[in-house]
């Protein structure tokens, strides 16, 4: 299986937490997975809901929940974050990278930390510029950025 980094696992998505986080079963244990390269508006729960948070969560549910996905780590980045979530690239069964799709549809921002050189960083940045230009998703009501 090819992807944007090193293959980690093929998993079934149990439930979606929000537009950039879901739970999956790995080795019999329910694990939270944070999707690398994106940040979606908050959908409530631990943090106050933000504009487009509910839409981003619904989008993720439609694309991921109950489906099988492939997880890939990114070379040079840790496999977990400070909240003990797996940090992974997520490739859907159709071969699409979920992060790129979510950004292209205006359901998430590109989120790349200063020290990171994500393998799909340029693709994410281009997808966000296009989503803004086409006023997709969260960008529909915003003034030119």
Helicity range: 10-25%
SSE order: EEEEHEEHEH
The total of beta strands comes to 7
Major sheet, described briefly?
5 strands, mixed, barrel
State Rg.
14 Å
Report the structural category. alpha+beta
Shape: globular
Strand content range: 25-35%
Low-confidence stretches: none
Overall residue-averaged pLDDT value: 88
Protein model, in words:
- With 145 residues, this protein is an alpha+beta fold.
- It is 22% helix and 30% strand.
- The chain has 3 helices and 7 strands, in the order E-E-E-E-H-E-E-H-E-H.
- It has helices spanning 53-64, 98-104, 121-133; strands at 6-18, 21-26, 29-35, 38-39, 68-73, 86-92, 109-110.
- It has a 5-stranded mixed beta barrel. A two-stranded antiparallel ribbon has the order 4-7.
- Helix 2 (98-104) packs parallel to helix 3 (121-133).
- It is globular.
- The chain starts with 5 loop residues before the first strand and ends in a 12-residue tail after the last helix.
- The mean pLDDT is 88.
Summarize the structure.
This protein is α+β, with helices and mostly antiparallel strands and 145 residues long. 22% of the residues lie in helices and 30% in strands.
Descriptive labels:
145 residues; alpha+beta; five-stranded mixed beta barrel; two-stranded antiparallel sheet; 3 helices
